[in-house]
Amino acid sequence: MHHDVTSTDLQEMMNKASAIHAVEPREGEDSQKGRTVSSRRHFMGRGMATTAVVAGAALATGRSASAAFPELYSGYNRRAFQEIQADENTHVAYLRNALGQAARPKATFKNLTAANVDQFVALSFAFENTGARAYTGAAPFINNPVYLSAAARIALVEGRHASYINALENLPLVPAGLAFEIPMPQEEVVNNVTPFIASLNGGVAPSYNLFRTDANDIAILNFALLLEDLEAEFYNLNVQRFFR
Q1: How confident is the model at residue 69, as a pLDDT?
Q2: Which is nearest to 107 in space by CA: 228, 237, 238?
Q3: SS3 of the chain: helix, strand, coil, percent, to 5
Q4: How far apart are CA 113 and CA 119, in angstroms?
Q5: How far, in Å, CA of 174 to CA of 105, rounded?
Q6: What percent of the chain lies above the pLDDT cut of 70?
Q7: Each residue of 55-97: pLDDT tens digit?
Q8: What average pLDDT does this structure show over 108-112?
Q9: CB neighbour burial string for 200-230, b if at least 16 within 10 angstroms, e if fewer
Q10: Distance between CA atoms of residues 16 and 58, nearest Å
């Protein structure tokens, strides 16, 4: 049966993937020149639209990676996830090099160790689809063509990751089965990743302006760096545990 991938699917997969502690309601935000202004305290108070859902019985099966998901070729899933892990670490290295001294400090993450392979793939699904759509949402506001080209190249790779994982979950390769990617607003991106961030370690809350300037390019690259740091750490923690 055809199933459209929607924001609700992303939310459910996030909830399926980890038990998230309840968070305080988000406080009001001010808007100035298209920018969401938010303190680190406000950011850390954000959470999912739906709070904690304990991992269900499907995640307690403890299936092995080889038994859990189909493989067209022997060892393919292991190689694919190792490739995804390498890509995410390369993205982090590129962004930190591009930003130089302007790079945000690496955040401290939480809730990233998967209990089993089902949970690992569910989180991969959420992170990769969020990442691909986050780059698409930010692209119109990138001023420097060099940065825009780099962001587009990373976004395409994130989309390839997402399509592979969508197939593992027996979902359409592209969210909603459409021929065009659906951009994800920065607010939705932040809500999706906040439950996995313990501390920004002095970094600014992730946000960018909705207009193009050189300074805004730095904000967007740092926004992307937070996502790539999260994904890289997630795969570094889990790939070898499930796909040796």
Answers
A1: 76
A2: 228
A3: 60, 5, 35
A4: 9
A5: 32
A6: 72
A7: 332 333 344 454 567 777 888 999 999 999 999 999 999 999 9
A8: 98
A9: beebbbbbbbeeeeeebbbbbbbbbbbbbbb
A10: 9
Residues 114 and 17: their CA atoms lie apart, in Å, by 8
Q: 3-class SS at 121?
A: helix
The whole-angstrom separation of Cα 51 and Cα 15 is: 8
Q: For residue 184, how many C-alpha atoms fall within 13 Å in the half-sphere facing its CB?
A: 25
Residue 119 and residue 56 in contact, taking contact as beta carbons nearer than 8 Å:
no
Residue 99 CA, chain-centre distance (Å), reads 20
pTM of the entire predicted model: 0.78
- Paired tokens of 30: 């001010």
Residue count of the chain, please give it: 244
Q: Residue 229 and residue 194: Cα distance in Å, rounded? A: 13
Strand 35-37 relative to strand 108-109, pairing: unpaired
User: What is the tens place of the pLDDT at every residue in 182-212?
Assistant: 999 999 999 999 999 999 999 999 999 999 9
- Alpha carbons 229 and 222: distance in angstroms, whole number: 10
What number of CA atoms fall less than 13 Å from residue 50's CA on the CB side? 14
* Torsion sign over Cα 70, 72, 73, 78: negative
> DSSP code of 194?
G
176 touches 106 (CB < 8 A): no
Contact status, residue 148 vs residue 142, Cβ threshold 8 Å: yes
Mean pLDDT over 141-164 rounds to 97
pLDDT at 6 over 80: no
From CA 92, how far away is CA 222, in angstroms rounded? 10
Among 11-15, 142-146, 208-212, the range scoring the smallest mean pLDDT is 11-15
